[in-house]
Specification:
The complex is a heterodimer.
Chain A: H1 4-21, H2 26-63, H3 69-86, H4 102-134, H5 140-154, H6 162-176, H7 178-202
Helix pairs in contact in A: 2-3, 3-4, 5-6, 6-7
Chain B: H1 3-8, H2 12-28, H3 39-49, E1 56-62, H4 68-84, E2 88-93, H5 98-113, E3 117-119, E4 122-124, E5 135-140, H6 144-153, E6 185-190, H7 194-206, E7 210-214, H8 223-227, E8 233-236, H9 237-247, H10 253-287
Parallel strand pairs in B: 1-2, 1-6, 2-5, 6-7, 7-8
Antiparallel strand pairs in B: 3-4
The chains are: A mainly alpha, B alpha/beta.
Chain lengths: 213, 288
């Protein structure tokens, strides 16, 4: 029963969702909307579980003074502050007032945005270092890769004059012919793979999602 | 270790230092570089430019602060262009940190729209943007694929209220606006696979005209959709944003940032060339 019930549910709902996709009838849409609400409800439980897990892991880290436990303090402080300000100091639990709370907006704009933007910007330095080391003309294929990268990077260089125009034409050809052919092959392959895997899950052939118990 | 060995095994801290110096110098020293526009960005600009007053466009702010440098300028340039043309915009975000990004953009655009401006020789009088009349911000919902499908049936399914808690039916802009049929196009600015979902579910199932703005590294992945006609325009990275700013004659952070990006690219190319010269020469020496 423990294994059969999920298999039956997946089969019934999987088949229904396939049929529903092609039936633009009112009743079909109503049932679809009903299931959509269920997905959000399940998602909310997953979110609650995630928050609980984060609190527990961070709390244990602080309690047992594990390495870098100080970061767990910051994590928990951030979590609670954002919830506290997001609910407008606990005054508005069921309305959107807190989204305009001065502290909530300030924390996002002056802490989260700079942190994430800085982290991503650092990538430029690592990419520069990696490109310097990796783009070497060691073989014919590596040389092709190197030339393609140089053409793409140089295509909008305004200091190249008429050479820049040729670069741009070559870059457009690279993007529209070899790149397009390879990407289409990958996309079609992935699409067929998704269909095959989905069918295997719906028909109960693929059962890894059930776990081992 | 001879000179060629040194050229191919430079300590990476030198790469970081030189790149940082170039970025700082080009940031501090303001000079402009010419921007050339491409067909894929021009088609987005032309599409928005030919829409009529009060037409509605849908702008997806599907990125987090980590893609701010590349995608925020796109959002500002497109929204300002649309608002100046008195188009109306439905903002939505399907990225978890997107609400803050969209909220910030709306506040900045509200300030900017108050000023009189001249773009491409046309004078636009300043005006106050009114929430619910000139724009609607629907907010964020998880599961982007489901939300896109839900909005295709009725915006009220995933978003019964807007971001600020106002029921959609009480917003003047949303009167008679049921789903994508009442929207002239969707322009999705994405830093992840939400763009794929818009292609599959938005353009695929509901045939909504779709244009994509994305980070530079994602650009090449979406050319197949451009060539197949599934998207009518593509904007890739800071360069795409700079092109839109140039086309709309609204110089902003993208055009400003292009000189930094250009010189950073030149430095990276010089490092690659230096590494390769060192590699080829040292290999030649070993053979001899």
């Amino acid at each position: 029963m423990k294994r059969q019930l999920p298999l039956v549910l997946v089969f019934v709902f999987g088949i229904f969702m396939i049929i529903q996709y092609f039936v633009p009838h009112e009743s079909s849409e109503w049932i679809y909307e009903f299931f959509l609400d269920w997905i959000y409800i399940i998602g909310i439980f997953a979110l609650a579980l995630g928050i609980w897990s984060l609190i527990r892991v961070s709390y244990d880290k602080i309690k047992y003074r594990r390495p870098n436990w100080q970061y767990a303090v910051i994590t928990l402080a951030g979590l609670f502050f954002m919830i506290w300000y997001g609910f407008d100091y606990g005054r508005h639990f069921f309305s959107a007032e807190g989204l305009r709370n001065y502290m909530f907006v300030s924390f996002f704009e002056y802490i989260l945005i700079p942190i994430q933007a800085t982290m991503f910007s650092l990538l430029a330095f690592f990419i520069a270092s990696a490109a310097y080391r990796a783009f070497r003309a060691r073989s014919a294929l590596a040389t092709l890769l190197l030339l393609a990268a140089l053409i793409i990077m140089l295509r909008f260089n305004p200091y190249l004059g008429s050479v820049g125009n040729y670069m741009e034409e070559m870059a457009i050809w690279l993007l529209n012919v070899p790149n397009l052919a390879a990407k289409r092959a990958i996309i079609i392959g992935v699409g067929l793979g998704i269909v095959a895997t989905s069918l295997k899950v719906i028909l109960g052939i693929e059962r890894a999602y059930l776990g081992r118990d | 270790m001879n000179i060629f060995d040194r050229m191919m095994s430079l300590d990476r801290r030198w790469v970081f230092l030189i790149l940082a110096l170039v970025c700082v110098i080009t940031y501090v020293w303001p000079f402009s570089i010419p921007i050339r526009t491409t067909h894929e960005v021009e088609s987005i600009y032309n599409y928005v430019d030919t829409l009529k007053e009060n037409d509605i466009i849908f702008l997806g702010i599907d990125y987090d602060p980590n893609a701010l440098a590349e995608l925020h300028p796109m959002a500002y340039a497109i929204a300002e262009h649309a608002f100046r043309k008195k188009l109306r915009i439905i903002f939505v975000t399907l990225s978890q940190n997107g609400p803050g990004m969209a909220d910030q953009a709306i506040r900045d655009l509200t300030d900017s729209l108050r000023q009189d401006k001249v773009y491409n020789g046309v004078e636009y009088k300043g005006r106050d943007l009114v929430n619910g009349v000139d724009y609607v911000f629907l907010g964020y919902k998880p599961y982007p694929g489901l939300v896109i499908l839900g909005m295709g049936q009725n915006f009220r399914i995933p978003f019964p209220t807007d971001y600020y808690g106002t029921p959609l039916d009480s917003l003047p802009l949303m009167k008679g606006v049921l789903n994508y049929d009442q929207v002239k196009c969707v322009i999705d600015l994405a830093a992840g696979n939400v763009a794929d979902m818009w292609v599959v579910y938005g353009a695929g199932r509901y045939n909504v005209p779709l244009a994509l703005g994305m980070t530079g590294v994602m650009g090449a992945d979406y050319y197949p959709y451009l060539n197949s006609g599934q998207v009518f325009g593509l904007m890739g990275g800071l360069l795409g944003a700079a092109q839109y700013e140039k086309l709309s004659d609204n110089s902003g952070p993208a055009i400003d940032g292009m000189r930094i990006q250009l010189y950073a690219h030149i430095i990276i190319i010089l490092f690659i060339l230096m590494g390769n010269i060192g590699f080829l020469m040292s290999r030649r020496e070993k053979r001899v």
